[in-house]
Design goal:
The complex is a heterodimer. Chain A is mainly beta. Chain A contains 3 helices and 12 strands. By secondary structure, chain B is mainly beta. The chains are: A mainly beta, B mainly beta.
Chain lengths: ~250, ~180
């Protein structure tokens, strides 16, 4: 028997009420997200000096990623249904330096809130013209851009009548392997934010705000698509790699 | 420039399977490569069950001990070693890589694979290291850990040229996960 939204919202509210105001990251131990219960380490993370290999990142290039993979609306013979949109932004490190030439991968539900993944059996239509996966490499200034369809919210079984706010999954590589990150981008003003234990697992409100894209009319194109901007910061170690490399 | 706050992580969720895996993603070298070894294991939750929706990445030095800077990390053309691989777990929570033995790093450090772990239910990625070491190996970091914790970071020899590295997310035998200074 799944818990009610009311019970879940009360748990979220209690965590908020007890929050002391000193966090910047997501909590790994966040009971309202039920699937996390057996999947977070109980021991504290062990502090360690990074080794040379961890201060570098795997390399990707145009041999790996075709520029057309950044447009999720052209992977089939027809145009997908839904609101065409662009999302662009920059990937930066903790010092504000651009992460250039690195891999960004995205995946998402279609406009009806349905993932193409076979485990998603929610009775919303699959769009034969939309898979919902894309890739690109960041530019010299850390910039990325995807053209896609605005995803719909979708139901899940965390609790009764659970709905995820619309989101796009992002997988990111930084200048260091230890900057590696996977996160989710949300859309401004979504009425489902307060009900969602995954977004609320970032307990600090300003940190949570970093996951929400901005509507940007300068990215919107006349009679073509709406536009959003979302910058991403990846942090690792302040240490500088010692190894000389010109290759 | 002022330090920027990290964009918080979020779980990889259950539906990455059509987006992140790619052809031969777990084969840093082909299994038929003369120097190929297998690095494999289970991702295990706090109840002792396999995690069927986890994704593991490894990153290691090239065979000459240098860090590889060659693009093509997703392009397994069979001739280049780029040092990076990705493996989703199967329905039993098992993952498997075909790779080569990691070259030794700096003096006083045992050879290791850098490992990054993602899963549904895991709200942020976790980092760890899979060391190829024995009880006699000297490594400043391993030596700083209690014996039982140290053990969680060391691969076990399975069969010839095959090594096991289980990743225990929670509970008894919980893997040492890392944060970096």
């Amino acid at each position: 028997m799944l818990d009610s939204q009311q019970k879940l919202s009360a748990e979220i509210a209690e965590i908020k009420a007890n929050y002391a105001g000193a966090e910047s990251e997501v909590r790994l131990d966040y009971p309202p997200y039920r699937s996390s219960a057996l999947r977070y380490p109980r021991r504290s993370l062990q502090q360690v000096d990074p080794e040379e290999i961890e201060l570098h990142s795997p390399a990707f290039g145009h041999i790996d990623v075709d520029p057309l993979e950044a447009d999720l609306t052209i992977h089939h013979s027809g145009a997908p249904i839904g609101e065409r949109m662009k999302v662009r932004g920059r990937v930066l490190d903790g010092q504000g330096r651009p992460v250039c030439g690195q891999l960004v991968e995205v995946w998402q539900a279609n406009a009806a809130g349905r993932y193409i993944h076979q485990r998603d059996q929610h009775p919303a239509p699959i769009d034969p013209n939309f898979t919902g996966a894309g890739r690109c490499l960041t530019g010299a200034d850390g910039s990325y851009e995807f053209t896609t369809i605005k995803p719909g919210p979708y139901p899940w079984k965390n609790h009764q009548n659970a709905w995820r706010p619309a989101h796009i999954h992002f997988s990111l590589f930084g200048n260091q392997f230890i900057e590696r990150s996977v996160t989710q981008m949300y859309f401004p003003g979504d009425p489902l934010f307060d009900f969602d234990p995954i977004l609320q697992s970032v307990v600090d409100p300003s940190a949570r705000g970093l996951l929400i894209a901005k509507y940007d009319h300068a990215v919107t194109e006349s009679e073509w698509c709406t536009g959003y901007t979302w910058d991403i910061v990846l942090t690792g170690s302040d240490r500088t790699p010692m190894e000389d490399h010109n290759g | 420039m002022a330090d920027l706050s990290r964009t918080p992580g979020q779980t990889v969720g259950p539906f990455f399977g059509y987006a992140l895996p790619f052809s031969s993603d777990s084969e840093l070298v082909a299994p038929s490569h003369p120097d190929a070894i297998r690095l494999h294991g289970h991702v295990i939750d706090g109840a002792g069950n396999g995690v069927p929706d986890a994704l593991i990445e490894i990153w290691q030095r090239g065979p000459d001990g240098a860090v590889v800077y060659q693009p093509g990390s997703m392009c397994r053309e069979g001739y280049s070693f780029t040092g990076w691989g990705r493996a989703a777990t199967d329905p039993d929570g098992h993952y498997s890589f075909s790779t080569i033995m990691p070259a030794a790093g700096p003096a006083g450090a045992a050879p290791m694979f850098a490992v990054c772990v993602f899963a549904r239910g895991l709200l942020d990625r976790l980092f760890t290291r899979a060391y190829v070491a024995t009880d006699d190996s000297r490594d400043a970091f391993l030596d700083s850990l209690e014996h039982e914790r140290r053990e969680t970071l060391i691969v076990r020899c399975d069969t010839d040229r095959s090594y096991i590295f289980d990743i225990v997310l929670q509970g008894a035998g919980e893997t040492v996960f890392l944060k970096y200074s």
